[in-house]
């Protein structure tokens, strides 16, 4: 397999963890359909103020659908409207490792009981905050910075496999994806090795999808697989329709389309099932703070109407696009980087609860913000 040193854009345009990784790794330029994981544990290291907005954002009504127990597709709000002042429901007590603190939360997942599962990046753990709790509990990792099986190193994302009642965790700096059963946290499993996991998702059939910034691709993994099947990218770093630059968090819809946060290209790409290239569905107009631009996005979720929600990291806002639109709209944030209730500072992950309330991992503020849904 041929390789080339990637130097196609300034590393300052991607987060430091991704930039450091790109600097030390080489990326394949050969298009292949299969990726064989092998066991590797490697050392990896890791404002713009848009115009103000009205108190509430509103458009059309939602219809809630789908009850598949394994689907990663989020529960959808009945209305497309949220209060603009967020409520801190986890963290918010500065950076730290106490159970009421977080240290740069990245990925989040809200379960059916409104418990919040948080990839607590620099605390090397996943914590669960039960509904209305004042503190969390460690449910994976939390045993220091290392590569032992009971350790996690720089978790960037987490989802739940409902069929197996298990957490699927992006153990980024250990270059692996691990599974922790919620009822037996003492026996975690490595399910994929040798992958610098940026984001993880699960489809309605239970297949697991993983983005790999080191190889600029997304693979799908099924139970019992020796090989993961490449479903997006794998053509080196770049800005072509079949390329990524630093793919991060991902989302899989009911039709098996994969939405990929393409950090370095400041865009969200959609790859339909069996596609050879993606389409730009948000951003892609250079780095900036206009409504048709993104600035190092880090999170994405999609509702049942196909509306795309983006954690627009360096613009400190959450944006919404409808496929085919030129411009997006600001959903929450967009009032400069800060710690007030109407502000975010580097939002990094998104999720809905069963009632359609929006949750945002507010990275630099070390907190999770809840934006309550408004009725018409």
From TrEMBL:
SUPFAM superfamilies: NHL repeat. InterPro entries: 6-blade_b-propeller_TolB-like, NHL_repeat, TRIM-NHL_E3_ligases. GO terms for molecular function: zinc ion binding. Keywords: Repeat. The keyword Phosphoprotein does not apply. PROSITE patterns: NHL. It comes from the Eukaryota. Transmembrane segments: none annotated. The keyword Repeat applies. NHL repeats lie at residues 288-318, 338-374. PANTHER family: E3 UBIQUITIN-PROTEIN LIGASE NHLRC1-RELATED (PTHR24104), PROTEIN LIN-41 (PTHR24104:SF25). This is NHL repeat containing protein. The lineage of its organism: Eukaryota, Metazoa, Spiralia, Gnathifera, Rotifera.
